Amino acid sequence: MKSVPLRGLIVVPFVVLTLIAGITLYLVSTITIANVANSVGIQYIKEVEDRIYGHVRHFTAPLSSIVDINRNAFSYRPELLDSLTPLASRLYEQAMPYPHMTFISVATTDGRYLSSTRNPFKTDHHSVAANYVNKTLTMEGFEYDPVRHIGDKIEKDPSFSYDPRTRPFYQDAVQAQGMVWSKIHLYYGFPTLGIGLSGPIYDQQGKLLGVTATSVALTELDDFLESIALVDNAYIFLAERNGALIATSSKDELYTIANGITTRVSLVTHPDKVFQMASKQLESGAHRLEVDGENFLYHVRSISLGYGETWLIGILIPSSHHESVLAEHNQAALFITLMLFACIALVGSLIAWYICKPIQRLNQAANDQNLESIQKLPQPLSGISEINSLSQGLHLMADNLADIMQNLDKKVAQRTSHLEDENENLLECSITDELTNLHNRRGLNQAFERTFKYAQQQNKSITFVLCDIDHFKGVNDKFGHSAGDLALVEVAKILKSHLRSTQDIVARYGGEEFALVFVDTDLNHVIARMNKIRQDFVAKPVFDNQHITMSFGITYIEDASSTSQQMLIDVTDAKLYRAKNSGRDKIVS
User: Fold this and answer.
1) Is the dihedral of CA 385, 387, 391, 396 positive or negative?
2) What's residue 257's pLDDT?
3) Could you give the CA distance from residue 26 to residue 331 in angstroms, rounded to a whole number?
4) Contact 199/227 with Cβ under 8 angstroms?
5) What is the pLDDT, as a whole number, of residue 524?
6) How far apart are CA 193 and CA 108, in angstroms?
7) Please, what are the averages of pLDDT over each run of 10 residues along the chain (589 residues)?
8) What single DSSP character describes residue 460?
9) Which CATH superfamily is 441-588 part of?
10) Element of type H or E holding 29
11) Class of domain 229-323
């Protein structure tokens, strides 16, 4: 081994420890600052997220409130549905406070329909739609009249056949027997998505009277997300659980129309890679994404609208927004680290000089290979008490060193031999069953694992047997546990006598249960051996002229690589269970 100067041995650890301490300080500082910066990013996201969450809840809450109010009103006063016309004013007044409430409607079981309607882009234009005024089941548009409720017909609005009982909002509510959200859809004639909530109306006896519903245009949510002031290159989206987009902070299209077919844009199909990557992680919580070399802090939060409907808020901000906080603090941490390194290195050098001088004299005396050199060292040798103690100890050690060296090798050899013997005894005890001298469960596991690997590597067959003494509890109860122990010992002898000592395995699996393992042995041969074992039990009592029987479960695998140890044990255990339950003293293979 190459020797090193004592001064270096003292100074170098100082330098290394200083370096480690400095790097640790720097890393801790960096991590702490990174965590703080990350917390700033999360806090920013959560503030934006809370605004969106509150706005969406406030935006959708009137739908359930209005449907619930109307359901209760018509349930307790079903006569209101006898003539729907007066209800136009009720529905009109309910819609007035909510500019984006496009429809508030009621449909009866006889097919009559009345709705307060509003253009989602002309929120001041309010009208009434009904399908019973001039012709049954024919939808027409009317001006709202506060006196007559339903005013003049709007001639420019088309008339068409309309039976609400065939519409999804009606059928879904009746089927659900409660409040239900419609699928988000494109409003007919308007470039915006919408969603509705409907609920069935029952009288106090539980008879269906009809369905009341509300619908709202989602363009307001799109406008709201666009209005939020974000950091550069940040993204916000509202989406359904399947990733279909409801609104985004950008002005991208939320649907496409081709050949008259409307297709919703989802996160997966969005042209922006950031949204595509976001689609891969829609679990609530904080995530990190990398898109074209740019890292994003990504947070997802679910919004429950009730009645089984859940939306997702997704916010992505570039990591550069909050990681820029690191720059100045990292420079300060690096400067402090360098100063600390220099100071400790200087102190280490001074200490090394003070310590090294007397130790060098000790070293010279020891290298002289002369006990007199050690004895001539001045006392005290140094102002350091530990070095003086070392010098005195060298004087005392010199006298005893020869005798110690002569006896040391012999004592070490004796102790090593003793320890090896003890280790072998402990290992043998740990894998051997004390009563039967067979492998115990641990010994079986070790031997079985080696045998199983051998069978797999050599493409050999393997057979696993579990056997159980029938009615063994009765033996213990009738003759006592000592007799039961004698029976277990005798069973172990019989089982072992029918095995190939170098190839097969027998072990006490637990209690009165034993396990056997055969490699490269034909199944019929194994079954024949088990039958011979059964014959031995018939011919020979296990104690005091008492005979026993055993039940056997056998599993044979042609190719050991096609299964696992645990599967082999589980299948065999099930077969043993069948043997026990089908009368005992049987072999199930």
Assistant:
1) positive
2) 87
3) 10
4) no
5) 95
6) 26
7) 61 70 65 63 87 94 95 95 95 90 95 92 82 95 94 92 95 95 84 93 95 93 88 91 92 85 91 92 92 91 93 91 61 70 70 71 70 72 72 67 58 63 69 92 93 92 95 90 92 91 87 94 94 93 89 94 91 96 93
8) -
9) Reverse transcriptase/Diguanylate cyclase domain (3.30.70.270)
10) helix 6-76
11) alpha beta
pTM: 0.53
Give the per-residue pLDDT at 358: 73
User: Contact at 8 Å (CB) between 238 and 225?
Assistant: yes
pLDDT confidence of residue 464: 96
Residue type, 295: N
Residue 337 phi/psi, 5-degree rounding, is: -60, -45
CA–CA dist 94, 62 (Å, integer): 9
- Tell me the CA distances in angstroms from 11 to 1, 3, 354, 461, one per residue in order: 20, 15, 12, 65
Instruction: Please list the residues that pair with 235 across neighbouring strands.
Output: 316
CATH architecture of 77-213: 2-Layer Sandwich (3.30)
CB contact at 8 A, 49 and 187: no
Q: Which of 249, 236, 244 is nearest to 299 (CA)?
A: 236
Task: State residue 405's pLDDT score.
Answer: 54
Please name the residues in contact with 77: beta carbons below 8 A apart, sequence gap of 6 or more: none
Q: Give the tokens for residue 360.
A: 């060098």
Extents of the domains making up the chain: 6-57+325-360, 77-213, 229-323, 374-418, 441-588
DSSP, residue by residue, 69-109: HHHHHHHH-GGGGT--TTHHHHHHHHHTT-TTEEEEEEEET
In CATH terms, are 77-213 and 229-323 the same topology? yes
The residue count of the chain comes to: 589
